[in-house]
C-alpha cells in the first residue's frame, strides 16, 4: 500500500480520494483479520476484490493516462479526473454503509432453530442411494448435453452460440452443476464417523466418478474462468479444508491469486521474451516491468470495473436514473425477450451501448459493479440500497455456512467465491448465474433426495390404521 501511493503521481484531490478509500479498506481488513471471530470467506472476497479493482488497477490506470493529453481506456472512454474522484466518492459511500450493516446485523442473526437441535442422522443406505441417483442423472445430463458440449469445445469465444441464452443458462449453470452436489454428499458420507471400510470405499468411488463427470462438464474448454473459480475453490474447501478454513488463509490465498499471480501471468503474456528465456535469465523479468508490461495488463478490459462506474455517471447525467426499471432485467431474467419485448437491457449492455454510440467502441457487453448498478437506478440512495442488500445477503449466507446441512454449506461457500464475479458485475449476469447454480447445487439435489425417499422407502407404503 505504501509503495502504491508513494509512486502515484497525481493531483492532490485525486490522490486523497484514493487514500480515503484505502484507509476505509484497511479498517475493514483489520476488523476481518484481527477482530472478527467467525469465519467469513465473504468478507475476504470483498476485501481482495476492492483492493484489486478499486485501488491497484485504477491507480495504475490513472498513472498511465493522466500524463497523456488525450488518454483513453481500452474501450475508448477518456480519462477524466473529476469522474475518478466522483467514483471514489461512490465507492467510499458503499464501503461505509456495507461495513456498518455487516458488523451491526451479523451479531443479531443466529442459526435457525433446526440447526441448533440435534439433527436426526440419515441412514447410510439412504445417503448412498441418493448419491447413486445423482450420478445416474449426471450421466444422462452428459448424454443429453453432448451436442452442446461439442459445440462449446469447437466454438471460438468471439462466435455467438447457436443455443439461446436461456438454453445456455439451463445447461451450463443448472444441469452441469448437479454432479457437484453429488460430490458434496459423497464427501459428507466419507466423513461420517463409524461407517465401515466398504461404505467409505464406495463413497470414495462414487466421489471419484462424479469428479470425472464434473470435469467433463466444467473445464476451461467449455466454461469461462470466472465460472470455474467458485467450483474449484469449493472442491478445495471440501477435500483440503485446512487451506481455506480461516479468515487469514482465505484472504491470503485470494490475495496471492488475484493480486500477485494473475498480474504476473499478464506480464508474461505482454512480454517480448519467451518463458524459457526469462527462466534462464531472470533479469529479463525486470526489463519487462520497466517496459510497462504490468501497466499494459491493468489497462485491459479485465480491470475495467472502476472506470465503468465513471461511464455510468456519464450515462446518468445524460439519461437520468432508471428508477429500478433497469433492475428488472436481473430480477425477471427468466422471462425471455420473445415474451417480453420491452425487457430492459442488462446494465453491462447499457454501458457498452453508451461507449458504442459516443466513443466509437465495438463491444456492448461490459462489467458494471454493484456500486454503479445502484447509482444507475436510484442515485446515491441506490448505492446505499445495494450496500445494505449485499451486507444482509452475506450475513444470511453466514448462517448457511455454519449449518449442519452440507449442501447449504456448499452453496454458501460457492457464493463467497462467486462474489468476485457479482461485485464486478453486471448484476443481471451475476444474479442469474448464481440462481442457476443454486437450483443445480441445492434445489434439484434436495428434490432428488426427497422423492427417492418417498418412493423407495418401504414405510411410505405402510397403510396406517384408521
**Taking Cα atoms only, what radius of gyration do you get, to the nearest Å?**
24 Å
Number of H/I helices:
22
Portion of residues in beta strands equals under 5%
The N- and C-terminal alpha carbons lie at a distance of: 74 Å
Q: How is the main sheet built? A: none
User: What general form does the structure show?
Assistant: globular
| Uncertain residue segments | 111-119, 460-466
How many β-strands, per DSSP? Answer: 0
The helix content is over 70%
Structural class: mainly alpha
Overall pLDDT metric: 86
User: From N to C, what is the helix and strand string?
Assistant: HHHHHHHHHHHHHHHHHHHHHH
Features:
disordered C terminus, mainly alpha, about 475 residues
Task: Walk me through the structure.
With about 475 residues, this protein is mainly α. It is about 70% helix and about 0% strand. The chain contains 22 helices and no strands. Helix 6 (about 125-145) runs antiparallel to helix 9 (about 180-190). The termini are far apart. Mean pLDDT is about 85; it is low at about 110-120 and about 460-465.
Note the topology:
Layout: H1 2-6, H2 12-35, H3 41-65, H4 81-106, H5 113-116, H6 124-144, H7 146-154, H8 165-174, H9 178-190, H10 197-217, H11 225-239, H12 247-269, H13 275-280, H14 283-290, H15 293-298, H16 305-319, H17 328-331, H18 347-359, H19 370-378, H20 380-401, H21 406-424, H22 427-456
Brief description of this entry?
The chain contains 22 helices and no strands. It has 466 residues and is mainly α.
